Amino acid sequence: GVGWGYTRQRSPGGVPRRLLMETQAVDARSAASCSDGTSSALHEVASESQLGQNGRLLVQAGGGRYIALIAHRGDVHAIDATCYHMGGPLLHAEIEDCGPFGPCVVCPWHRYQISLRSGDSLYQNMSGTVCSKGLKQRVHEVVRRDGKILVRIAHSDKIESDNYAFKTPPPSSGGLAAPPQRRSGEVLRAGAAGVRRPARLTAGAAGDVAKSMCGADGR
């Protein structure tokens, strides 16, 4: 694998690259075909030991797609590493419990919540119910086998995270990139026991809710 750090290197074409701290790019190797005979395959992307204590690792698979491996409560999730909304880094994003949608990453740039299970982008309606804006972020199946982590790249009609999936993610160093501000649309705490709740929506925040329904495609 190639070590990453806050250094500047040059690609073969002479273009400088800013690399991410405490992550590692791992060359993916095709390990097995799907049992249903489709063209999708399992790609060996890392060993479990490479996840380390923080449980986060940046890998590439499927022709150079950047994927964040995120270990959480005994599971390993694979999600496109760059937020669908405006390209924020998800590798070290905070994780919150979003009720029926399971654990969610919270983009450090605009505080969007994205389900690690499904890739749905979430918001809270006026009655306090957590709702989905629809599938926005591509998530990938993870198989753990003999200490290795394998990923099956999800294929479907184009979704918004595809716009950033093959571009080098912005630097990610853990925690928030900037002090938290009012979350877009006050997007959401699920309201489960022990989980913080958002302040009551004001008229301005309600307007933000509508805006937060829009993604990179403006819809």
Automatic annotation (TrEMBL):
Residues covered by region (Disordered): 162-193
Pfam families cross-referenced by the UniProt entry: Rieske_4
Residue span, Rieske domain: 43-151
CDD domains attached to this UniProt entry: Rieske
GO MF term (any one): 2 iron, 2 sulfur cluster binding
InterPro entries per UniProt: Rieske_2Fe-2S (IPR017941), Rieske_2Fe-2S_sf (IPR036922), Sol_Rieske_ferrdox_dom (IPR054716)
Coiled-coil ranges from the UniProt annotation: none
UniProt superkingdom: Eukaryota
PROSITE patterns (UniProt xref): RIESKE
Cofactor(s) for this UniProt protein: [2Fe-2S] cluster
Sorted UniProt keywords: 2Fe-2S, Iron, Iron-sulfur, Metal-binding
Record protein name field: Rieske domain-containing protein
Native species: Emiliania huxleyi
Higher taxonomy: Eukaryota, Haptista, Haptophyta, Prymnesiophyceae, Isochrysidales
